[in-house]
Automatic annotation (TrEMBL):
Protein origin, superkingdom: Bacteria
Taxonomic source organism: Mesorhizobium wenxiniae
UniProt GO MF annotations: transmembrane transporter activity
Origin organism lineage: Bacteria, Pseudomonadati, Pseudomonadota, Alphaproteobacteria, Hyphomicrobiales
InterPro entries: MFS (IPR011701), MFS_dom (IPR020846), MFS_trans_sf (IPR036259), Proton-linked_MCT (IPR050327)
Transmembrane segments: 45-65, 77-96, 102-124, 136-154, 166-185, 218-237, 243-261, 282-302, 308-331, 343-368, 374-394
Keyword hit for Repeat: no
Keywords assigned by UniProt, alphabetized: Membrane, Transmembrane, Transmembrane helix
Protein name as it appears in the record: MFS transporter
Domain annotation Major facilitator superfamily (MFS) profile: ranges: 7-396
Gene3D superfamilies to which the protein is assigned, alphabetical: MFS general substrate transporter like domains (1.20.1250.20)
Amino acid sequence: MSDRKIPAAALWALGLTQIIGYGTLYYSFSILVPSIALEFAWPEQWVFGALSASLLVGGLFAPTAGRWADRFGAGRVMTFGSLAAAAALVACALAPGRVSFVLALVAMELASAFVLYSAAFVAIVQIGGARAQRSITHLTLIAGFASTLFWPSTAALHEHLTWREVYLVFAGINVAICLPIHAWLARLSRRTDESASPTPAAVAPAGRAFTPRDRSRVFLLMLGGFAIEGFVLSSILVHMVPLTTALGLGSAGLVVTTLFGPSQVASRLINMLFGGRLAQNWLAVVGATLLPLGLVVLLAMTPSLLGAMAFVILFGLGSGLASIVGGTLPLELFGRERYGARLGWVTAARQFSSALAPFALAMAMAGIGVQPSLWLTAAVGMLGILAFSAIILIRRQPLAHDRVMLTSAN
């Protein structure tokens, strides 16, 4: 792999498209749900259920989108994705009924596989070479402001426009801003490939040379760890405000939850400044530890406001790290070869568990109560720590040929 670095302009431009992508395709949804439910005479929980089903379908398609990014280039895939996202948003805006709206929502989630983090991380690796891990951290820091910008801006637009008109505006933004940026990145990626040296050093993977058996074990452990993180994050984030209220914090719980976004961005900033010396596998363990630790602190200190603040901060820090290592850990473990396909499987694992988690926690709270359900969620989160720790242990084992040489020497 070469030592080239992704241009700063390209990184900032890609960050802008991630803010727009997450803002228009994901974060805006919760603001518009009440109006959508009212127009279709549909309970709000069913509208959110339609989103969960769409996330499951999008997760099924994520590995395919990753393979296409490997084969055709992430820039080209993202250019197509911008058009697909705009078309899906228009379809949502024009949907005459519930069925057509759900189908458009599924199309939106399919399009997101081409334009959000998974595709963007592949673009960075294809353009940025050996320094891609640091660039991925920078990108997550920039994109971390998507919710901060799009929750209030969507609400402000919706004061003057219907939810259908808001989606049409968002479609226009994807075409006017994201499409030309992604097309430029596609050309930049092609120029990078053409100028790269064809020597073995330029194309050799950076990942560790696992044995075939260890490679499969590490891959499955990685998917399991990310799936568990996705489950814990999604289950708690969807229910965070009602959870803090149910634990006796009242209206103060809503104020406390506002610490989550800044904590998430802070973890990315801290990692960008000081995390360069820490292997991504260890960073994954730290991120996986912060999530159940936050829940334990919350439960141990309930109904203390200080405990709730510590919980939200720890949870935000863990979430920020999880978004980073989701892109950097597969690169560290396996290198550039088939990076897009592996990242697609990571996305699929996360989306499957994330789609099911809010429903599972709601059922648990209804069945066994809030506090036992949170203790159970914390226990599930600890399995993620074990998964990432097991990868470290496997990596420390000598390779097969090293074992043979050691045996021969003895």
